[in-house]
Every structure is written in structure tokens, then in C-alpha cells.
Design goal:
Strand 10, helix 7 and strand 11 form a beta-alpha-beta unit. The strands form three sheets. The chain has a ten-stranded mixed beta sheet with strand order 1-2-3-6-9-10-11-12-13-14. The protein has 400 residues and is α/β, with parallel strands linked by helices. The protein has two domains: 56 residues, no CATH class; 304 residues, Aldolase class I (TIM Barrel). The termini are far apart.
Length: 400
């Protein structure tokens, strides 16, 4: 298999073993490249930037990689408040993907009526595919269709590029594509991100899926401790199929059974993503259906304001009052922790569902930012009912 990126870990180790190079040198190469690429421009001297390798390793690297990264940073767009940055990344084959950096200051929030501890942190939303085959009607990415899967190295390179702009603390697979349709590459990229030199915690990585049942069934065994988010978006199968055509292949009853088993094994809460579409899935009866569907689960429901995607969309945004009522039903009647996603980067088309590469005029959209993902992830582990009540009190303070 041809290596696309020096961060394609499995392939690089395999090639090293073929020519008698110890695979222990792979993370050493990554460490030096990560520091070099973040802090300075690359010069075509592998020996200068990655010292103390066997001569055969240098020969292999020079022969296979003219530059250390297979992708290049094409453009960067910053939101007016400078909290969101959108990176347009050009792949080796000329295709484009986008990644979004979202910056937060935890001290601006409240906990128990007092400023919360902490400081600045950044979450990176990354893509796993060029385009997407799921065809969700409320998402601009679906209008592109599916183009190709990214390799594990191409996924990791988004983190490398982003690290030049911010110290990334959390990673969410909520950008372009359905991550679990590119299962092997996504799992391998996560393993790379949690190892040297990136050293991200699995507790700070979230994979979002529309509900690929056979992949969910494998996920906990392959990457235990990973956070799972499910793009549910409707409480009934007929509504899901209306707005998410791919849902026909993943019946809601079977999906919920799969999630029940995943939760039993992982002992973690599941993040439920629910986009609010006016007159489609946002009425009181939908809230009650959703509450009954989830009442036996340990979940956090994240209500997502719909973002316009121009002529591509047939939907309208739900009013703030209806969103509030929906949230109150889930919380008050069903005791389900429910948050409303804060939108970031709308002025650079960097908000949820706006991701679509539209060259050459560069009116580019991107990814699915969360309302401070780290705060949601803090509640992922299943707690006692008394602790759950404390969590709910915190949410009410943050979202009065």
C-alpha cells in the first residue's frame, strides 16, 4: 500500500520492518517533525530536523517524502471575535478538507454562581472523509457527495497544521464525512493522537456518527475510553429517514439496542446530537418521544440550532422559545441532562452543518463545533444519581 503521509503509522512501520529498520524510530520521527513543523519552516534536510536515525531510514524518507507532510495549509479564516479559525487543507491528490479550531476561556463561565476555574483551551474539529455519502438534508457536506476516505496520516496532519495556531486540548471527529465509514483510518489516527508526540487523552477525543451499528459494536473494544456522540436528530424512524436518508439502513430500534450494549460495556454517557428543525422535529410531542426513547440511557442531549446553507436547504431555524421549551421537557419530565450548543464561527461559515468546500471563490464552510466540548465530556462517566443532580444544577447555572 502506498504511504500517503509520514503519519500513516501502520504503513510506515510495515515498510520499516521490510527494510530492517526498527519501528521504535517511528514515534521519534513524529516527535521531531511535530516540533519542527509547528515552530519553523521546513527545509529539505531530514538529517537536520530528525537526528540520530539509521542511514537506511534517511534514504527511505528522502525517496518517499519530498516534504514531511502530504497536505498543505491552503488558507486560514478567522472569525471576527478571533475565537474560531477555519483551516482549508489541500491533500496530496488536490482535494480539500477543512478543520476548525474553537477557543474557549473557562473562566468566563459560572459554576455555583462563581467564576469557574481553568483558563484558555482549544478544541479541534477534524474531517475524516472528503465529502460524505450519508446525504443528511440539513447538512451542506451532503451536497458534495462522497469523494474519498482520508488515510490515518491525513487525519493526523490536520492536528499538526492546527497546532501551529493553538495548543489543541480536545479533538472532535465532527467535520466532513462519517467517521465510522472510514473506521480503520479513524481508529488508527486516534491511536496515533494518544501516543507520542501528541499525547492526547482518550477522554478528550469524541467521535460522532449517524449510527453505523456494526462499527459502534466494535468501537469500545478497539478504543476503550473514547467518547461517542450520536447524531440522532429525530425520535422516530420515519422522521429520521425523512431528514437522514442513510437512516433506512440503521433502524432506530436496532441502533438503540447497539447503544445500550455500548453503554453497558463502556460505562460512559453518550452524547446525543439533535439538530432543531422548525416544524419537523421540534414540537412538544417530539420532545416527549425523545425523552421516552432515552429515559433508560445515561446521556447528554445537545440541542443544535440549525444553520442556514442557502439554496441547499428546505428547512428553517427553530425559535429560541421552542428550543427552550424542548429543553425544559427533557430536563423536567425525563431528568435528561440537556444543553444548547453555542454557535461559533458563523461569520466564516464555520458553524454546524455549513461545511462544504466551494472552490474557487473560497466561500468555504465547516464543521460541527460543540458548546465547550470539554465541559460536556466531564460528565461522560456514569455517576451516582446524587452526582447527576449536581451536574444538572451546574447546567442550569450555565444555561439559565
Amino acid at each position: 500500500m502506498k504511504i500517503r503521509s509520514v503519519f500513516d503509522g501502520v504503513e510506515l512501520r510495515t515498510e520499516f520492518q521490510k527494510i530492517g529498520i526498527d519501528s521504535k524510530f517511528v514515534p521519534i520521527i513524529w516527535k521531531h517533525l511535530f516540533l519542527t513543523l509547528r515552530d519553523s519552516n521546513w527545509e529539505e534536510e531530514w538529517e537536520k530536523h530528525v537526528p540520530s536515525l539509521p542511514s537506511s531510514a534517511y534514504s527511505f524518507l528522502r525517496s518517499n517524502f519530498k516534504t514531511p507532510l502530504s497536505s498543505t495549509l491552503h488558507s486560514v479564516f478567522h472569525s471576527s471575535d478571533n475565537l474560531t479559525s477555519k483551516l482549508l487543507i489541500k491533500l496530496h491528490n488536490g482535494a480539500f478538507v477543512e478543520a476548525v479550531i474553537m477557543r474557549y476561556d473557562t473562566r468566563l463561565g459560572k459554576y455555583g454562581g462563581k467564576p469557574r476555574p481553568g483558563g484558555l483551551r482549544a478544541t479541534l474539529c477534524i474531517s475524516s472523509q472528503v465529502g460524505c455519502k450519508m446525504g443528511c438534508k440539513f447538512c451542506a457536506t451532503g451536497s458534495m457527495g462522497f469523494k474519498s476516505n482520508l488515510s490515518s496520516g491525513e487525519i493526523v496532519e490536520q492536528l499538526v497544521h492546527a497546532s501551529s495556531f493553538a495548543q489543541i486540548r480536545n479533538v472532535v471527529f465532527m467535520g466532513m464525512g462519517e467517521p465510522l465509514n472510514n473506521y480503520s483510518a479513524v481508529v488508527e489516527s486516534i491511536r496515533i493522537m494518544t501516543g507520542s508526540p501528541f499525547q492526547l487523552s482518550l477522554k478528550r477525543i469524541t467521535v460522532s456518527t449517524v449510527g453505523i451499528i456494526h462499527a459502534i459494536n466494535k468501537l469500545h473494544n478497539d478504543v476503550p475510553g473514547l467518547n461517542l456522540a450520536v447524531s440522532l436528530h429525530a425520535p422516530a424512524q420515519d422522521i429520521r429517514c425523512q431528514i437522514m436518508p442513510a437512516a433506512r439502513a440503521f433502524p432506530l430500534e436496532k441502533l438503540m439496542n447497539s447503544l445500550q450494549e455500548y453503554q453497558r460495556k463502556s460505562l460512559q454517557k453518550i452524547l446525543i446530537e439533535y439538530i432543531m428543525l422548525d416544524g419537523v422535529n421540534d414540537e412538544e410531542q417530539h420532545a416527549h418521544l425523545l425523552g421516552k426513547l432515552l429515559e433508560t440511557f445515561e446521556v447528554v442531549v445537545n440541542l443544535i440550532p440549525f444553520n442556514s446553507i442557502g439554496t441547499l436547504s428546505q428547512f428553517k431555524s427553530t425559535s429560541e422559545q421552542k428550543v427552550s421549551n424542548f429543553q425544559k421537557i427533557l430536563r423536567g419530565t425525563y431528568n435528561i441532562r440537556t444543553t444548547v450548543r453555542k454557535q461559533m464561527g458563523e461569520d466564516i461559515s464555520g458553524a454546524c452543518g455549513q461545511l462544504v468546500v466551494n472552490l474557487p471563490d473560497k466561500s468555504l464552510g465547516n464543521a460541527n463545533p460543540l458548546t465547550d466540548i470539554e465541559d460536556l465530556l466531564k460528565s461522560i462517566e456514569i455517576r451516582s444519581r446524587s452526582q447527576y443532580a449536581l451536574d444538572e444544577a451546574q447546567v442550569r447555572n450555565e444555561n439559565p
